[in-house]
Amino acid sequence: MSTTHPGPARVQRSEPRPSAVTAKHLARAKVTRQRRGSKLKLWAGLVCTLIVVIPVALARVLPLPGPDQQDLASRRLAPFTDGHLFGTDQLGRDLLSRVLHGGQVSLLVGLLAVVVSGVIGVVLGAAAGYFGGWIDTVVSRLLEAQLSLPLLMMLLLVVALFGPSIPVITFVIAIAQWPEVARLTRSLVLVEREKPYVAAARVLGLHRFAILLRHVLPNVVKQASLVVLLLLAQAVLLESALSYLGAGPQRPFATWGRIISDGQDYITTSWWMVTLPGLVIVALVVGVNLLGDGLRDRARRRKASTS
Amino acid sequence: MAPYLFKRLGQSVLTVFLTISTVFVLIRMAPGDPAAAYAGPLATTEDLAKIRASFGLDRSVVEQYLLFLKGILTGDLGTSYSFRSPALDVVLERLPFTITLAVAAILITTVVSVPLGVWMARRADTTRELGANVVTIAGQSMPDFWSGIMLLTVFAVLIPVLPASGFATWGGLVLPALTVAILQIALISRLVRSEMAKNLTAPYLTVARSRGVSERALVWRYAMTNSSIPVVTALGTRFASMLNGVVVVEVVFAWPGVGSLVVRALETRDYPLIQATVLVTAALAVTVQLLVDLAYPLLDPRVRLGKKVSA
């Protein structure tokens, strides 16, 4: 038997005598199917993500017209005409170039938002889980309160208040997302806190912060980081919704939601102005979600096999 | 039961109060002058001052806040600047549309996602289940404004079978409700799947099966009942957040609900209208959450309200 299936093969190796379990049975086993499923998800996710991320990252290098370069003579050209892969918009701007340049802003906002919400969430969640008491009460109440807030309404309000700049939108999305990280971290820390090594560290006379920072957090961060990809997917969607409603970053380039809302007026005559930017968002978000899902499946299986 | 109810009621009132107070402060910090938005570009400074006085904006913020709180108790939330009628009336007029949309969407979601989730849990790790799994991931990856525009283009423009916007006939409800439901179906069916998968492998189910309980009863009566609390909680939370206005979808379909009202009120800095909308929707959302919590003992007799479940 091959060594590429360590799970089922290990069972076989421990029993070297002839077995009724054939390679065919192994290929059909539940574990093999699960492994195949998550591998498929990971690869499909990676491909979808890279198809979007690589061109977006290379937007400045690719031989494309500028995203704001108007050409009124070639307005609303269909895709694949005159070298415009995605066609042009109502002002004759190259749609692909607009999508890629706008994508840089969308991705940047998404990544920054995930980092900020991750830091806030891990810090507050860990503090609430480890110290308990009034810290836990305050954090848990905040989490609950945010659930019953009209979220998008509040986000629109804050953007109206401080203006649609990149830092404000990043911050707003981070505020929308931190509860998820905080709740997960809190529950993980609650479990970790009761383990013997924490008691041992306490007996050795380590400070509470030192135990939390050097011993508890490293054991939690790996599991908590699995939600990062799912958060990134949500952040990209949220940013596009805000910019669709006109509360997205305006500079330097219109982001995806805005490009779609611009194209909406021409949907009956120029389908590509809405459809193609939308498909780009879907490809990216599906890819990131698949990656996150596949990784989570794998982590769950690994945990199940060690326990 | 009674002390629990009072405690939860108190919490709900506090949540609504904090929400509305935050909004009150935030909109007054925002740049943009309601008087200027109201009067138009040709107004003189005196005109603006007069308008501001008539809106009560010449008073201090603290004074405005106290008046606003007094207004809540007497049911008078001020006059909307742009509609020139009581703000509460404007909101209540729009509210039935949002409720209709939310109810339709949550019905579609429940009817589709529960059977789908159960099916996925029973066929776990088959190729077909993997396919369904990927489809639900795709469903939660589409921006709702985009899927709305796509549905609209296909079913109202290319094949004109349904109205594109507004709510003149019941047909107008189909596309917005579907758009809202796509995302919810993806999320809820995945939740049903994971909850059911947990219960389908539980020892009590093996015991029941060995006693000869039919497969259908095992799935729907045994496993489903035990999965229902997280699922009902999620459905309730989703429903509550829809009542806060399905802002994006309402804008796409020009749906006359509170979501599109809020976007307009924010643009015109219509303070009383923003406050009234937030107050009404937040109160409604909190009520739904409370009702869901109160329904737990009906779903699971082991739950005693106000006490932590140990099982």
TrEMBL record, chain A:
Keywords: Cell membrane, Membrane, Transmembrane, Transmembrane helix, Transport. It comes from the Bacteria. The keyword Chloroplast does not apply. CDD domains: TM_PBP2. Residues 1-28 are annotated as: Disordered. GO terms for biological process: transmembrane transport. The chain crosses the membrane at residues 42-62, 105-131, 151-176, 196-213, 225-247, 271-292. InterPro entries: BP-dependent_transpt_permease (IPR050366), MetI-like (IPR000515), MetI-like_sf (IPR035906). Pfam families: BPD_transp_1 (PF00528). It is found in: Cell membrane. SUPFAM superfamilies: MetI-like. Residues 103-292 form the ABC transmembrane type-1 domain. One of its GO terms (cellular component) is plasma membrane. It is a multi-pass membrane protein. Belongs to the binding-protein-dependent transport system permease family. This is ABC transporter permease.
Automatic annotation (TrEMBL), chain B:
InterPro entries: BPD_transp_1_N (IPR045621), MetI-like (IPR000515), MetI-like_sf (IPR035906). It comes from the Bacteria. It is found in: Cell membrane. The chain crosses the membrane at residues 12-30, 97-121, 142-161, 167-188, 231-253, 273-299. It is a multi-pass membrane protein. Residues 95-292 form the ABC transmembrane type-1 domain. GO terms for molecular function: dipeptide transmembrane transporter activity. Keywords: Cell membrane, Membrane, Transmembrane, Transmembrane helix, Transport. One of its GO terms (cellular component) is plasma membrane. Belongs to the binding-protein-dependent transport system permease family. This is ABC transporter permease.
